[in-house]
């Protein structure tokens, strides 16, 4: 916990999944670079982003897997996640209110039914993007504190080691919504 | 004809008298086949038990007859070996009992159950074959009318349950005339079907059928018969490594048991004179067989099996020479059986070998790098705490900083997915298609063999750039080495503007490591992307892709060499004007060390692409 640029207590792995074109890469880019990528190319396979954040005074490195909008990822995450995985539902492109595909009520009901965290965000304006990633990290951290996540079981220890305290799917998990709040 | 069925039980008696174990074995098999029938079979047994008592005396007289019949019996074996006696028996019963009777139903279901199982796997077929073979072996010549009466009554007593079930009604019904007619019909019905199936696969069993050693053969068969009953060969389609091994061990152990019972109960039965003759030949046979099995089995790691075999050998040896030939026969059969089962639907065991190979714990590169990074970071931390000065990052950390690790991890995932895809495909193929696919895969692998490192130290940047470009254009997927080129050009510019007098050797070293790590990370990233793109590419041309990737790999590694050389040049100049040459020299060594690492990472990343290419090729 001493000084140095590479001192962080945890590494959290995030996976962003969702249909093609919902803005996964843009969300990531907004979060890591604080910029909006206007003409974002198709993601090939997986892209990665990292950012070190602080939760409750602990430095946490977020390692974010930005997936291509492929079917396999969606099914994978449905099947492979364990119950303590934090899933955060992001309705992207909330700046385009006029072309909304999914109502806020519908999305939040879906999130509630499935026990997901939910927020509407915009990668373009940056609204709620930071919050979504940070809230997820807080939830994971809380899970660790509560002992719900067994760090040793997942991988190695905690401090300065790439522990894997849960895959966090910032998932745009439902139908494709090209222009509006992806659900 | 009417005498035949009763008579063979008589000669079966010969074994069963001395060999209760065998009877059990056979009956256990029979049970597995006709569970629902056991009840009625048992009833029949009870009924027949008192008949047994009466017959014990007659047995002795029968033995004489048997001896006379022996020579003929051997002949008969050959003649009858192809016919499925079980079905014949069943047919007989059916005939005796008449349609609609309970027993009849039961028996009628028997052959179908056998057939059903045969579809699942070959083994039950063989089981059927063995059973029939046993019966045929036991079948005495038809023209010994003397025994008929005795036999009729005796049958129930010593014959195994399966035989019993087939014959329960016979002794009492005495309707052999009716039998004969119907029997012929039903024989045609069932016998033919099974015959072909059964013996089509059984060429390997010839030695068992040698008429020279009939008594032992009869002992062996129960052991063989046990195999299918004790282990579920039917599940081979979905086997995994542990199950294959455990099944193998299991069957070996059952076989061992089978042998020991054979050995125990077999003592005294075979004609000692005959045995003595055979002994010598068989001993030599054993020598040939056992090492054979050893090499075959250890080849794919079935250590247990080998142990089992050596156990068997031991067992056979210690039981003495008299019995040896019986054991040897069994042993030979076991060996053949084992190979047969292992090779079933898998010629040359390629599938199994391939499968086992995959399961080997090969170290995962990204994992190793990650661990190295952690270790180095920890060490660094301790160092930092001691002397505040050192802030240098190690290679692995830098590699991770440039997303090299995660891309490597993703590439590994991709590679594994392709591997799984290939394996599933392999498993779905048989025979020719399988060999063909394996050949294709081998060809792809050969295409991907990297040429031995040419000491291409003089390769200049323009050449490398050209090579990179041509390689990328050949592969016809939109991967770009722009980033790679840019990174190197930046570094070159930095080096050219470097004022050696001011620059610290450590700083220079740090820059070298950083450049190497960055270039490697970019290379790995591009390999990852290339893999993803190749998988979605529409028209695959494996040869071109492999060529291009090989060229890329060699070019990239040679560039790494160039980078290392440039940095060490600078460091050398520095060293000549410096006081602490040793330190700088160790830095130079380190640069080359990291360069070698970089090259091997790039090559490893390339290796991970091979399954991707293979998927495209098959």
Automatic annotation (TrEMBL), chain A:
Q: What's an example GO cellular component term for this entry?
A: early endosome
Q: Which family does it belong to?
A: Belongs to the small GTPase superfamily. Rab family.
Q: Which NCBIfam families match?
A: small_GTP
Enumerate the residue ranges of region (Disordered): 155-183
Biological process terms in GO annotation: Golgi to endosome transport; intracellular protein transport; phagolysosome assembly
Offer an example of a GO molecular function term for this protein.
GTP binding
Composition bias (Polar residues) maps to: 161-183
UniProt-listed InterPro entries: P-loop_NTPase, Rab_GTPases_membrane_traffic, Small_GTP-bd, Small_GTPase
Tell me which Pfam families the record gives.
Answer: Ras
* Lineage top rank: taxon: Eukaryota
Q: Which organism is it from?
A: Tribolium castaneum
Would you tell me the protein name for this molecule? Ras-related protein Rab-14-like Protein
Its ancestry begins with:
Eukaryota, Metazoa, Ecdysozoa, Arthropoda, Hexapoda
From TrEMBL, chain B:
- Coiled-coil boundaries: 365-393
Q: Which domain of life is it from?
A: Eukaryota
Pfam families (alphabetical) = DUF719
Q: Which family does it belong to?
A: Belongs to the FAM114 family.
Q: What is this organism's lineage?
A: Eukaryota, Metazoa, Ecdysozoa, Arthropoda, Hexapoda
Query: Which residue intervals are annotated with compositional bias (Basic and acidic residues) in the record?
Result: 44-58, 66-78, 149-172
Name under which the protein is recorded: Protein FAM114A2-like Protein
Give the gene name: AUGUSTUS-3.0.2_07210
- Indicate, by first and last residue, each region the UniProt record lists as having compositional bias (Acidic residues): 1-22, 181-207
**What are the UniProt keywords, alphabetically?**
Coiled coil, Phosphoprotein
**Source species, please?**
Tribolium castaneum (Red flour beetle)
């Amino acid at each position: 916990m001493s000084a140095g640029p590479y001192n962080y207590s945890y590494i959290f792995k995030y996976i962003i999944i969702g249909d093609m074109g919902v803005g996964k890469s843009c969300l990531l880019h907004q979060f890591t670079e604080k910029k909006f990528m206007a003409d974002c190319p198709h993601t090939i396979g997986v892209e990665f982003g990292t950012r070190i954040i602080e939760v409750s005074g602990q430095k946490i490195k977020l390692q974010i897997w930005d997936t291509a909008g492929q079917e396999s990822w969606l099914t994978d995450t449905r099947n492979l996640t364990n119950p303590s995985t934090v899933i955060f539902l992001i309705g992207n492109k909330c700046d385009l209110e006029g072309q909304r595909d999914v109502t806020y009520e519908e999305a939040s009901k879906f999130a509630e039914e499935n026990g997901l965290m939910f927020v509407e965000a915009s990668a373009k304006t940056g609204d709620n993007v930071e919050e979504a990633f940070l809230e997820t990290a807080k939830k994971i951290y809380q899970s660790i504190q509560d002992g719900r996540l067994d760090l040793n079981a997942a991988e190695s220890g905690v401090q300065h080691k790439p522990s894997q305290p849960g895959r966090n799917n910032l998932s745009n998990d439902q139908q494709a919504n090209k222009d509006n709040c992806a659900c | 004809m009417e005498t035949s069925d009763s008579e063979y039980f008589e000669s079966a008696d010969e074994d069963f008298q001395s060999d209760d174990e065998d009877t059990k074995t056979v009956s256990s098999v029979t049970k597995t086949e006709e569970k629902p029938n056991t009840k009625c079979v048992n009833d029949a047994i009870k009924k027949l038990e008192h008949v047994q008592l009466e017959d014990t005396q007659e047995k002795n007289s029968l033995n004489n007859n048997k001896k006379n019949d022996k020579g003929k019996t051997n002949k008969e074996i050959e003649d009858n070996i192809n016919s499925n006696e079980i079905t014949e028996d069943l047919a007989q019963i059916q005939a005796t009992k008449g349609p609609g009777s309970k027993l009849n139903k039961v028996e009628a279901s028997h052959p179908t159950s056998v057939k059903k199982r045969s579809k699942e796997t070959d083994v039950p077929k063989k089981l059927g074959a063995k059973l029939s073979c046993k019966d045929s072996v036991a079948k005495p010549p038809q023209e010994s009318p003397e025994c008929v009466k005795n036999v009729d009554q005796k049958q129930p007593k010593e014959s195994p349950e399966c035989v019993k079930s087939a014959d329960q009604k016979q002794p009492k019904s005495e309707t052999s005339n009716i039998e004969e007619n119907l029997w012929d019909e039903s024989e045609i019905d069932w016998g033919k079907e099974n015959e072909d199936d059964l013996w089509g696969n059984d060429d390997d069993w010839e030695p068992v059928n040698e008429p020279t050693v009939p008594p032992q053969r009869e002992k062996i068969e129960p052991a063989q018969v046990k195999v299918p009953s004790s282990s579920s060969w039917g599940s081979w389609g979905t086997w995994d490594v542990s199950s294959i091994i455990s099944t193998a061990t299991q069957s070996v152990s059952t076989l061992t048991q089978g042998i020991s019972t054979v050995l125990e109960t077999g003592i005294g039965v075979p004609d000692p004179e005959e045995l003595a003759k055979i002994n010598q030949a068989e001993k030599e046979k054993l020598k040939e067989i056992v090492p054979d099995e050893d090499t075959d089995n250890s080849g794919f790691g079935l250590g247990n099996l080998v142990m089992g075999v050596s156990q068997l050998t031991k067992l056979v040896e210690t039981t003495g020479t008299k019995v040896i030939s019986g054991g040897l026969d069994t042993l030979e059969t076991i060996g053949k059986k084992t190979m047969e089962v292992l090779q079933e639907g898998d010629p040359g065991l390629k599938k199994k070998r391939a499968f086992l190979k995959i399961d080997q714990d090969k170290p995962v590169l990204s994992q190793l790098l990650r661990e190295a990074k952690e270790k180095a970071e920890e060490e660094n931390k301790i160092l930092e705490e001691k002397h505040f000065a050192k802030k240098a990052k190690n290679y692995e950390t830098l590699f991770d900083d440039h997303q090299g690790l995660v891309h490597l991890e993703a590439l590994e995932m991709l590679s594994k997915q392709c591997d799984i895809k290939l394996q599933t495909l392999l498993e779905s193929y048989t025979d020719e298609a399988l060999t063909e696919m394996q050949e294709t895969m081998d060809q792809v692998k050969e295409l991907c063999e990297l040429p031995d490192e040419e000491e291409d130290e003089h390769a200049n940047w323009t050449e490398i750039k050209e090579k990179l470009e041509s390689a990328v254009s050949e592969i016809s997927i939109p991967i770009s080495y722009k980033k790679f080129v840019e990174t190197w050009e930046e570094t070159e510019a930095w080096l050219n503007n470097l004022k050696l007098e001011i620059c610290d050797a450590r700083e220079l070293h740090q820059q070298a490591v950083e450049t190497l790590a960055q270039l490697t990370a970019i290379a790995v990233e591009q390999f990852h992307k290339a893999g993803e793109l190749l998988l979605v590419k529409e028209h695959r041309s494996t040869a071109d892709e492999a060529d291009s990737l090989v060229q890329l790999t060699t070019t990239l590694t040679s560039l790494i060499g160039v980078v290392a050389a440039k940095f060490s040049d600078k460091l050398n100049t520095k060293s000549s004007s410096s006081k602490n040459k040793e330190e700088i020299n160790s830095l130079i060594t380190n640069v080359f060390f990291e360069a070698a690492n970089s090259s091997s990472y790039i090559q490893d990343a390339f290796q991970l692409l091979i399954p991707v290419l293979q998927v495209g090729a098959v």
